Each structure stands twice: as structure tokens, then as C-alpha cells.
Input
Amino acid sequence: MTIADTVTRGPVKKDRPAPIARTVKRRNVAGDDLGSVDLEPSIFGIEPNLAVLHQVVTAQLAAIRAGTQSTKTRAQVRGGGAKPFAQKGTGRARQGSSRSPSMSGGGVALGPKPRSYRQHTPKKMVRLALLSALSDRAATNRVALVDQWGWEGPKTKDAVAALANLKVTGTVLVVLADDETIVGRSFANLPNVKTTSFGQLSAHDVLRNDWILFSDRTLPGSDAFGAAAASASEETVSATEEATADA
Output
């Protein structure tokens, strides 16, 4: 290999290992063991890409920032129209305004102004970061699965009992379907539990919680998840057609 070949060669693609097949125990809200379920290797079995994960989480945290901080310049501070003292004869440095940044009560030079901290992140990177986070939780056996919730009304007592029966401790991220409002209200009063839908799931949400709890309807890669997604898509199409017909 010559020096020219070394300079002109393209980037080296890293060979990553094949996805690993993993399983998770399936239980009901009473904690009874219902067997094991195979997790989708392409979602829960890849090698986490730490560089992409760091970049995406940093971008997600930056997008949360309000960016509303603001300071006043010397032109925006009230007053300072008159010359504070004579140009000569005082022995002091000449000043034309008492609102200069060098004087007390003056404006701020180069201070922060409202801005957006949002960073553009490609969709493929966002997806890879989420899959990396899910694979990390699956590798450490921090993924739990419940068959169904089956609650008739919102009760915090039922939510606490379910977490105790499932033996999940610490902070928990519960992934719910869009129509599972009763379950969401049951977990709402628990400070160590956060609820979200799979469509709103992010790598930051997965990493900041100790456990991630799915149901049969929300576990990605399962038959129930595919059926629920297809049903939601059909409902969206029907609602769009009805709105178009009414218009």
C-alpha cells in the first residue's frame, strides 16, 4: 500500500456483530408467570452505538431548553440620555452616557438573547439511538412485559400493586397505547413512573429510567403490536375520509 492509497481511501465501515436473540418473561398484573416471549433482535438485540446515542440525547436535551433568556443592551436600558459629567476637568475618563456597559446600572455587552437551541438530527440517527437504548435495557434484563392491564377505572392503588407484583423498582417508563387513558391516570400520581406511547418514545426517556414496561399491545415486534398499529392506521384513514366528505 502506497501513501497515495492511504490518503485517498474512504472511511472504514465498522463491522458490527449480528443482532442477539433475547427473551422477556410475560406476566399478568398479579405477577403470575405466563411464559417467555422472544424479543425482536433488530430492536432489542443490536450492539448499542454509543456515539450516535450521545449525539441524539444531547440534541433532545437541547431541544427542551426554552431559550428565552434575555438581557438589555445600552440602547434598551432606560435613561442615560444626558452626559453624566463634563468632558474635561474632572480627571476621570470621558463618558457620554451613564448606561454604558462599564458603568453601574448600564446595559450588558454581548449578553444572551432569545435563541433556539434545537439541533437537526437525521431520522435514521434518532431511530438508531432509540434501538440502541432499548437493546441496552434488554441486555441488562430491565425490560418487563405484562399481558394486559384490564383495569375498569383509574386507581393509583392498582398501579402500585402491579409494580410490586411485577418486581420493578426504581424509576419506571410505562409504554401505553393511545386509548389506554385509564392506565395513564392510574400511574399519574406516582413520582417514579412516567407514561408515554411508543410513537413518542425517545432514547432519552429510555436511558433516564431504570425499567421500561411494555404490554402485549405496545411491545414492538410482536403480533399484537402490529395489529394495534394497523387498527390505529385504519381509524386515522376513516376519520380523514369522514372529514373530507363533510367538507
